[in-house]
Design a protein that fits this description.
This protein is of the alpha+beta class and 337 residues long. Helix content is 26%, strand content 39%. The chain folds into two domains: 126 residues, Immunoglobulin-like; 114 residues, Immunoglobulins (Immunoglobulin-like, Sandwich). It contains three helices and 22 strands. It is rod-shaped.
């Protein structure tokens, strides 16, 4: 039987194990061809103890208080004429790395170190005891040699694996979200396309429904008093003999025909009502077969004027005016006396 453990839980458990496995006190057996690793952390001072007094320290990225540059503060114990065996290191930056050489005794022993800064204070060294590898080997073959600290490499490897898992999970979430967004957009486009496809059919059905309803209610009409007039420019304006009332709107059909030998141009068509108090224009919508208000000799156009019949009272006079430049009257026809 296979037991599956969630990746996140496994990584957290591994990181916790490594953190506990890191000891703050360690021993390094060094020689001239071996480099010791010292792990530091901001806020933590690491002490390195050598078998002989420390004569000289060289750090690759030593902190300079005068310029404020550098990453590591390095001090040794004792005085210049009586140096001690300890070196103290503390980083002043959250990240960085450098190297360091320490000469001890009569200057014949030089130890090499790599300095690193770890983000987890628990992983930093507090005390590092340095022994000479050759002396330690000659003293007793039965004495076990200090093993190199492998926990840091294991910790970094586990950290890299966790970050890789997080990146893969984030990429998967983004990919899934993009797929869902694409699917929603495709579904919306399909609904819009279907609505566009059905729009003419629905419009035709609505027109038919309204027409049938008007037939059932009975068509109403207004008889036109004057259906035809000829202008001074030999243009004939004709109205249908009836104004049809349909769905609370009135529809008046007209035709303008140029029977002369010159172009006929007009600027507007308007409906006006008049009574004893005066006249005023109606709000109306004009729809015609030509977009321009001009006719060549022998040419004709037709159109429909749509207006609200409630604007016209029973005793008011309704007239159609054809106007030219400066609103000059070219012709008029009386629709209702």
């Amino acid at each position: 039987m296979k037991i599956r453990v969630p990746v996140t839980a496994l990584m957290l458990s591994l990181l916790a194990t490594l953190a506990h496995a890191q000891t703050p006190v360690t021993t390094l057996a060094l020689s001239s061809d071996r480099i010791g690793e010292i792990k530091t952390s901001p806020g933590i001072t690491t002490m390195i103890r050598f078998p002989d007094p420390v004569q000289e320290i060289i750090c690759g990225d030593l902190y300079d208080p005068g310029t404020g540059k550098g990453t590591f503060v390095v001090q040794r114990s004792g005085a210049n004429d009586h140096p001690g065996n300890e070196v103290f290191i503390k980083p002043v930056a959250p990240k960085g790395l450098s190297n360091m050489f320490v000469k001890t005794g009569d200057g014949k022993h030089t130890y090499s170190f790599d300095l690193t800064i770890v983000t987890t204070p628990q992983a930093a060294h507090r005390m590092v005891n340095v022994t000479d590898q050759a002396a330690a080997s000659g003293a007793s073959s039965a004495e076990p040699r200090a093993e190199p600290d492998k926990s840091s490499a294991e910790f970094e490897r586990a950290k890299a694996e966790a970050e890789q898992q997080a990146r893969q999970k984030a990429a998967e979430i983004l990919r899934t979200a993009q797929q869902q967004a694409d699917r929603k957009i495709a579904e919306a486009d399909a609904r819009i396309a279907e609505a566009d496809k059905l729009a003419p059919q629905r419009a035709e059905q609505e027109i038919e429904r309204r027409f049938m309803q008007a037939l059932m209610l009975g068509l109403r009409e207004i008889k036109v008093s004057n259906t035809k007039v000829t202008t001074a420019k030999k243009t004939v304006i004709t109205l249908d003999p009836r104004v049809l009332l349909f769905d609370d709107k009135a529809y008046l059909r007209y035709m303008i025909q140029n029977t002369g030998d010159k172009d006929f141009v007009f600027t507007s068509l308007s409906l006006e009502v008049a009574d004893v108090k005066g006249s005023k224009p109606l709000t109306a919508e004009v729809k015609q077969s030509k977009t321009v208000n001009s006719l060549l000799p022998g040419e004709a156009l037709t159109g429909v004027i749509v207006f609200d019949p409630k604007q016209v009272a029973a005793k008011q006079k309704l007239t159609l005016f054809v106007r030219g430049d400066d609103s000059s009257e070219l012709a008029h026809l009386t629709i209702q006396e």
